[in-house]
C-alpha cells in the first residue's frame, strides 16, 4: 500500500470547470434541455392550474344554477281556500324581488302548488331526488292558523309552522354551507322583517282585536312567521368528511408512482432465469394490479370504519329528516368498498398507462393534471361551473364522491350510473394497458439499440449465455423480435 500511495497521489484530477472548452457540447445540450423542460413545465402548469381557477371564476354568476323551489300552498286547497292568504303572497313577492336584485343569489324558482298535487311532502321528495338544491314551502294552513291564533288568543301558536325551508347538506356540504344556507338565511330574515311590519300594521288597524287577545297570542303577533329550517340529510359525522371529500385524492398521488413496475420487469429481463412469455407477463401484471387495488381499497374503507363512520344504519324515508341513515343498511360497507375499489382501479390504471407511455420524467405533470382535475370535479358540482366543465360528469372521482355520499347519507341513488362509469374507465384503461406495455418495451429496446449503435459490438443476452458480437461502430444492431430485450 505504501509503494502505491505516491502513484495514486500523482494521478491527475479528473473533474474540470463548467466552463472548460471540452464541455462546450455538454453545456449546449444541458442548456437547451433546461430551456425546453422549463418551457414545457411552465405551459403545462399554466394550463392545468387554469382549470381550477376557471371553475370558480364565474361562481357568483352561476349561483342561479343552485335551484331553490318556492312553492305557495297557502289557502290553495280545502278547507283553507276560504281564507285570504297573506303569508304565501309575501313569500313569493320576496322571491321575485330577490330574483330581480343585482345581488348574487341562488336560483329561486316559483312553482305552482298544482305541480306537486297540493302536497308539501312532494316538494321534499323533489329536493331529495336532486330536482332542486333547496325549497321554501308555505304550508296550506299558514294564514288560517295565524289569523285564528290572533282572533282567539291562542298562546300555543307556533310561528315555525307557517313556512318550511328544505335543504340537504349531505348532497354537498360545501355548497350548502357556503352558498345555499347564507342565501336562505338572508331570505328568511328579510321575510320575517317585511312580513312582521306588514302584519303588525294590519293588527293595529283591526279594531276587533283586543289587547288581551293579542297579549295571549304573543308569538302570533311577533314574529308571526318564523321559517323552520329542515335538513333532510344532515352532513355527518365529522369523521365522514375525508371519505366523501378529499380522502381518496391523497391516494391518487400514491397510485401515480408505479411501485410494482420495477419488480414486474424482472419477469422479462433474463437475469439467471428464462424470461416469462410476454403475454403472460402482461396478464400477470394486470391481475397483480387489480389485486393490489382490491386490498388497498379495503384498507382505505377500514379507516372510516375504525373512526366509527356508520355503515349499518337502516335507510330512511325521502321526506323525513334522518341522522346518518345508510342506503343499504348492513350491506353499506360492502357497497362502499366495491365502489372505492373500482374508483381506485380507474384512477390507478390510468396512472400506470401514462407512466409507461410518458416515462418518469413527465409523470409529475400527469399527476398534477390527474389529481387536480379529479379533485375539482369531486368537490365542485358542475352545476355552478361554466359549460366547459361538463366533462366533469365523466371523470371517475366525481362518481366515487357522488356514490360515497349516496351510500353514507342515503341520498337519491344514481349508484348504477356511478358503477357504470367506473366500470367503463377500468375497461378502457385495460384495453389501453396492452399497447402501453408495448410502448414501454419499444422505448427500452430503442434505448438499448441507440446505446449499442455507438459501440463496436452488441450483446446477445440470454439467461444462460451473454456474448458480445462484433460489429462496425455506428451500425445499428439487429432488431429484437419476439420476446423482450433479446437479440436475434
UniProtKB/TrEMBL annotation:
Keyword terms of this UniProt record: Membrane, Transmembrane, Transmembrane helix
InterPro entries cross-referenced by the UniProt entry: DUF3533 (IPR022703), MNNG_permease-like (IPR053001)
Entry superkingdom: Eukaryota
Chain ranges passing through the membrane: 37-55, 239-262, 283-307, 327-350, 362-380, 419-440
Keyword presence, Membrane: yes
GO cellular component: membrane
Every DUF3533 domain range: 37-431
Keyword Acyltransferase: no
Pfam families associated with the record: DUF3533
Protein's name according to its UniProt entry: Nitrosoguanidine resistance protein SNG1
Species assigned in the record: Colletotrichum higginsianum
Amino acid at each position: 500500500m505504501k509503494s502505491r500511495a505516491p502513484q495514486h497521489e500523482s494521478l491527475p484530477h479528473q473533474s474540470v470547470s463548467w466552463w472548460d472548452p471540452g464541455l462546450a457540447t455538454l453545456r449546449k445540450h444541458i442548456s437547451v434541455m433546461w430551456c425546453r423542460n422549463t418551457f414545457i413545465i411552465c405551459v403545462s402548469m399554466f394550463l392545468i392550474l387554469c382549470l381550477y381557477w376557471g371553475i370558480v371564476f364565474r361562481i357568483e354568476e352561476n349561483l342561479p344554477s343552485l335551484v331553490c323551489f318556492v312553492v305557495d300552498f297557502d289557502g290553495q286547497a280545502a278547507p283553507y281556500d276560504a281564507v285570504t292568504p297573506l303569508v304565501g303572497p309575501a313569500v313569493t313577492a320576496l322571491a321575485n324581488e330577490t330574483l330581480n336584485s343585482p345581488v348574487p343569489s341562488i336560483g329561486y324558482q316559483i312553482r305552482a302548488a298544482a305541480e306537486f298535487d297540493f302536497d308539501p311532502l312532494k316538494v321534499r321528495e323533489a329536493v331529495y331526488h336532486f330536482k332542486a338544491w333547496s325549497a321554501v314551502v308555505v304550508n296550506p294552513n299558514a294564514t288560517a292558523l295565524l289569523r285564528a291564533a290572533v282572533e282567539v288568543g291562542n298562546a300555543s301558536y307556533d310561528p315555525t309552522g307557517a313556512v318550511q325551508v328544505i335543504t340537504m347538506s349531505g348532497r354537498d356540504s360545501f355548497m350548502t354551507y357556503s352558498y345555499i344556507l347564507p342565501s336562505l338565511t338572508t331570505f328568511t330574515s328579510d321575510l320575517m322583517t317585511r312580513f312582521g311590519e306588514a302584519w303588525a300594521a294590519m293588527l293595529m288597524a283591526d279594531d276587533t282585536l283586543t289587547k288581551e287577545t293579542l297579549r295571549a297570542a304573543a308569538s302570533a303577533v311577533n314574529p308571526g312567521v318564523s321559517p323552520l329550517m329542515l335538513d333532510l340529510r344532515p352532513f355527518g359525522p365529522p369523521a365522514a368528511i375525508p371519505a366523501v371529500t378529499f380522502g381518496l385524492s391523497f391516494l391518487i398521488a400514491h397510485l401515480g408512482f408505479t411501485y410494482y413496475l420495477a419488480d414486474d420487469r424482472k419477469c422479462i429481463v433474463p437475469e439467471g432465469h428464462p424470461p416469462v412469455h410476454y403475454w403472460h407477463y402482461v396478464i400477470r401484471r394486470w391481475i397483480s394490479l387489480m389485486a393490489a387495488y382490491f386490498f388497498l381499497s379495503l384498507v382505505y374503507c377500514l379507516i372510516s370504519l375504525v373512526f366509527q363512520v356508520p355503515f349499518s344504519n337502516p335507510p330512511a324515508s325521502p321526506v323525513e329528516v334522518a341522522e346518518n341513515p345508510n342506503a343499504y343498511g348492513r350491506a353499506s360497507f360492502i357497497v362502499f368498498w366495491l365502489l372505492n375499489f373500482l374508483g381506485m382501479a380507474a384512477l390507478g390504471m390510468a396512472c400506470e398507462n401514462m407512466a409507461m407511455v410518458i416515462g418518469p420524467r413527465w409523470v409529475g405533470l400527469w399527476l398534477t393534471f390527474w389529481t387536480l382535475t379529479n379533485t375539482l370535479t369531486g368537490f365542485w358540482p358542475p352545476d355552478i361551473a361554466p359549460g366547459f366543465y361538463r366533462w366533469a360528469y365523466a371523470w371517475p372521482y366525481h362518481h366515487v364522491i357522488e356514490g360515497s355520499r349516496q351510500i353514507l347519507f342515503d341520498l337519491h341513488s344514481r349508484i348504477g350510473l356511478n358503477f357504470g362509469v367506473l366500470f367503463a374507465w377500468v375497461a378502457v384503461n385495460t384495453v389501453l394497458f396492452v399497447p402501453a406495455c408495448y410502448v414501454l418495451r419499444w422505448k427500452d429496446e430503442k434505448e438499448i439499440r441507440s446505446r449499442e449503435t455507438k459501440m463496436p459490438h452488441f450483446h446477445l443476452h440470454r439467461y444462460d449465455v451473454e456474448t458480445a458480437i462484433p460489429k462496425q461502430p455506428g451500425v445499428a444492431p439487429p432488431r429484437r423480435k419476439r420476446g423482450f430485450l433479446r437479440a436475434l
